[in-house]
Specification:
The chain is α/β, with parallel strands linked by helices and 404 residues long. The protein has nine helices and 24 strands. It has two domains: 280 residues, ANL, N-terminal domain (Rossmann fold), CATH 3.40.50.12780; 112 residues, ANL, C-terminal domain (GMP Synthetase, Chain A, domain 3, 2-Layer Sandwich), CATH 3.30.300.30. The strands form five sheets. Strands 6-5-7-8-9-10-11 form a seven-stranded mixed beta sheet, with helices on both faces. A six-stranded mixed beta sheet has the order 1-2-3-4-14-15. A hairpin with a 4-residue loop joins strand 12 and strand 13. The longest helix is centred in the N-terminal third of the chain and has 17 residues.
């Protein structure tokens, strides 16, 4: 069993035709690191002849850093099963045009290749997010489908970019899309489909074409919840195993743990009587203040909704928790904005509106203003960065308190 390294974004959909195994890594990862990892994985499979069955592709999970690599092994057939499910539901046709608007080392980009391969559609490369170039390519090449993340939809709304007539569906995943942004984008003609999925399920397993936080699973996906309200899934698109670099530099592997053929996610959800999924948060989104359970996911949603009214002065917001000697934890708001006149007045207004709409122990009394948020390559907020020494120093140096 040999694994070949791919470290480029312009990948041909024909990789789903051959019987080779691949590891697809970020171009920004050094060649030395990428080659070293590939060699290490090949040695691991030589020494541990796992029964992988069909040919597969290794992708880095969203939690991967250059120091800690976690890879998800997806059978090509699982990715193609996902592509078939999505294409059948949304009636993909031969010779339609896809924009590869997400990188192919990410499941969002790789799934575009799988769909275009299966339904004999064309793909057009798009290397780096640039709104003006995005608009030009979609218009010039009569693009029918693309995938975006919420920050990119935000950019479209901020610049009041009208959708071209050729576009049929825009799949939005990788994070929460604010209700107001969804409405404004659809008013501009963008046919948004919010998606719910993950690398481990070979892309999306549920979708929504409305502003509500309710996702409909595809017919092929079976869902349930366990006693902790965590979503469990039965599907033919599930990953085969994960590979991680241990502290000793060795490769550790793990097969998915199944309970009655269902795989447990870390997502906490509620299911409606119609079988729709309402996302509540992840285990890491919950903390306690004064002994009361706090849902940071819902609080961040609320703050984002209030901040949108202050575009373009404030372009992003989030909430983080820091230790508090008496209360256990304390909440601090971060705002992305350029220093300007009356910006602190605007933030005070936002936080006072926020505090009037939440419970006493959920209130926020301090904030930090920064000109740039840490984002991943595809525009997802890197919340873990706010726990680094850089941002802890920023809190100490630039923390301000609201005037009630």
């Amino acid at each position: 069993m040999k694994i070949e390294l791919i470290q480029k974004n312009n990948i041909e959909p024909s990789i789903f035709d051959d019987k080779k195994n691949y590891i697809i890594l970020n171009q920004k990862l050094s060649t030395l690191t990428a080659n070293s990892l590939t060699n290490k994985i090949n040695i691991f499979f030589e020494e541990n002849p796992l029964s992988m069955g069909d040919s597969f592709i290794l992708l880095a999970s969203s939690g991967t850093t250059s120091f800690k690599i976690k890879l998800v092994a997806l059978k090509k057939m699982a990715i193609l099963n996902s592509a078939h499910m999505v294409g059948q539901h949304f009636s993909f046709k031969k010779n339609e045009n896809w924009l590869t608007s997400l990188p192919c080392h990410h499941i969002g980009g790789l799934s575009i290749l799988a769909r275009s391969h299966l339904f004999k559609q064309r793909t057009f490369a798009f290397e780096k997010w640039d709104l003006a170039l995005f608009s030009k390519i979609i218009t010039d090449y009569k693009i029918n489908y693309c995938s975006l993340v919420p920050t990119q939809v935000f950019d479209i709304v901020q610049k009041v970019l009208q959708a071209p007539v050729s576009i049929k569906k825009v799949f939005v995943g990788g994070g929460h899309l604010d209700e107001t942004i969804f409405i404004k984008a659809t008013q501009l003609g963008w046919p948004l489909i919010k998606t719910y999925g993950m690398t481990e399920t070979s892309s999306m397993i549920a979708y929504s074409d409305s502003k509500e936080n309710l996702f409909t699973p595809f017919n092929e996906i079976k869902i349930s919840t366990n006693s902790e309200s965590k979503l469990t899934i039965n599907c033919n698109t599930l990953y085969t195993c994960t590979l991680k670099e241990g502290d000793n530099g060795n490769i550790d592997f793990e097969f998915p743990k199944l309970f009655d053929n269902f795989w447990q996610t870390e997502d906490i959800v509620s299911l409606t009587s119609q079988g729709k999924i309402s996302f509540i948060g992840r285990g890491s989104d919950f903390t306690k203040i004064k002994g009361e359970l706090i849902n940071l996911f819902l609080l961040r949603q609320r703050l984002n909704s209030l901040s949108i009214d202050f575009l373009p002065s404030i372009t992003n917001s989030t909430i983080i928790e820091i230790p508090h000697q008496r209360d256990g934890s304390e909440l601090i708001a971060f705002f992305e904005a350029k220093p300007q006149q009356n910006i602190n007045k605007s933030i005070n207004k936002i936080l006072n509106l926020f505090n009037n709409s939440v419970l006493p122990f959920e209130k926020i009394f301090s904030y930090v203003l920064t000109d740039k948020f840490p984002l991943t390559e595809i525009g997802k907020l890197k919340l873990s960065e706010f726990n680094t020494s850089t941002y802890k120093e920023l809190i100490n140096e630039k923390r301000s308190y609201i005037m009630e």
